[in-house]
Amino acid sequence: MSMKGGGFQKSSKASDQVPTSSLADIAFLLLIFFMVTTVFQADRDRPITWPEAEAAEKIDEKQKNILNIWMERDGSVYMNDQPYQMQDVSVVVAPLYAASDRALVISVRGDRDVPYLYMDQIQKELTEAGVVRVVFAAQLEQSMQRERR
């Protein structure tokens, strides 16, 4: 008796489909990896005495749409924890405001002992940058934020 085809036959054929049985596991591991390795920047508190306010309005904006400007008693300016010169405020804020499609809210946070001269200068710089939405933080706002948490 003669055997046709050499005697050995392929017992299984190669599949033309992508195996998806472990796809969910891989996606879950990637999700965990990105959650663990992501670093969120937290605003550092500055030691200031907040001005008092009789009434305050809560800002319902996403954190990415708020630019915090800190005013010190000596006139130094910090935007998102980075020091800037007073005359550079409009140069830095104008492109950020334009890039956000005018949705950026500027939150000016200053000690109650900051001279009015510095607050007036920061207002003029923000006006020069074309900013419309400016909020001045006060003590009542801080107590409202603590109650929300």
Structural class: alpha/beta
- Strand percent estimate: 5-15%
Cα shape: elongated
CATH topology of one domain: Nucleotidyltransferase, domain 5
As an assembly, this protein is: single chain
Main sheet record: 5 strands, mixed
Q: Uncertain runs with pLDDT below 50, 5 residues or more?
A: none
Number of helices: 4
What order do the helices and strands follow? HEEEHEHEH
Cα separation of the termini: 87 Å
* CATH second-level architecture of one domain: 2-Layer Sandwich
**What is the strand tally?**
5
As laid out across the biggest beta sheet, the strand order is 3-2-1-4-5
Please give the CATH class of one domain.
Alpha Beta
How much helical structure, as a percent, in the residues? 25-40%
- Mean model confidence by pLDDT: 76
Radius of gyration (Å): 29 Å
Question: How does this structure look, described?
Answer:
This protein is α/β, with parallel strands linked by helices. It has a domain at 63-148: Nucleotidyltransferase, domain 5, CATH 3.30.420. The chain is 33% helix and 14% strand. It has four helices and five strands, in the order H-E-E-E-H-E-H-E-H. It is elongated and about 100 Å long. The model has no long low-confidence stretch (mean pLDDT 76).
